[in-house]
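Can't paste images in this forum, so I'm doing it all in text. The chain is below; anyone willing to post the predicted structure tokens underneath?
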Amino acid sequence: MSLKTPPTYLYIKDAAIVREVDEHSGLPTVHLYDCEGEMRYFFPPEWTDEQICHAIRFANKAFAAGYKLGDYTARYEIRAVLGIPHPAPEPE
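Text version of the structure:
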């Protein structure tokens, strides 16, 4: 089984960047929410929306790479337990 479409941590088009003042500290905050309204992360208030989108793209790449490695590792371990020879790694 190989992944045709890499999994995504957060779709930028479905995310909301909310800039507000924290009610407790009175300091500006920047929160990132997903499409379900769950806060995913917070950023320094100096960051622009473009910088935040760049960080999301990086997080998506790292998430996909980790998912792919986990998928390969699981297949490798299952084959080892069952005594099935390991195929050559899939080309990138």
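The longest strand covers residues 16-21. The chain has one helix and three strands.
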